[in-house]
Amino acid sequence: MRPTPFAAIALLCSLAAAAAKPPEPDLRPLMNFDGSPQEPRWVAVNDGVMGGRSSGGPAVVDGRLEFRGTLSLANNGGFSSVRSVGRDFDLSEASHVVLRVRGDGRRYQLRLATDARYRGMPISYGVEFDTTAGEWTRVRLPLAALRPTVRGDALPGPPLDPARVREIGLLIADRREGPFALVVDWIAAE
Questions:
Q1: Which of 23, 70, 79, 144 falls between 20 and 30 A from 7, CA-CA?
Q2: What is the dihedral of CA 11, 16, 18, 23, to 10 degrees?
């Protein structure tokens, strides 16, 4: 059975997208969004869990992760996030997480989670980064800059254990209502 022209075009597009992934030899790819079995699923966690009205979520489109939605400050809301599910990451040999992103000029956070807990609640480790509207940029974030929080409240510790990362996530909570959009081409460790 011969593939349809549409299937052949889709295959060529996915191969071209995969070929454009982190070319730097000093980077270890973590996610290429290529649909391989090693790629984790992505889920949304928005402020609706606390009564807020923000909306947002992930979609993998043409070999890229799209994180889009609308931020609302109603009902003490003001955040939207996406996180990976179904794959652990050993970053013990890494000093940085590097992302290639196209943003909207807003500030986002990279968030990592391990099995660490505070009073039974999962701890997230986050660091903020800025984007330039409509431009692809390479964001290089030191693991040492990630700070522990629970539900947005800063904690004095424990420090991140990079060998036990269970989730990689993105969050927007810049206190600006309205639409947001972040596209991620790849995520790598350095």
A1: 23
A2: 170
- DSSP E strand stretches across the chain: 28-31, 41-46, 55-61, 64-71, 80-85, 96-102, 107-118, 121-130, 136-142, 147-150, 153-154, 167-172, 178-189
Output the domain CATH number for residue 116: 2.60.120.260
107's tokens? 């500030």
pLDDT-wise least confident of 12-16, 42-46, 66-70, 82-86: 12-16
Question: First CA to last CA across the chain, in angstroms?
Answer: 44
Q: How many domains does the chain have?
A: 1
What domain range is 178 assigned to?
A: 5-189
pTM confidence score:
0.87
Rounded to the nearest 5 degrees, what angle is found at the Cα of 50, between the Cα atoms of 45 and 55?
A: 45
Residue 14 has pLDDT above 50, yes or no: no
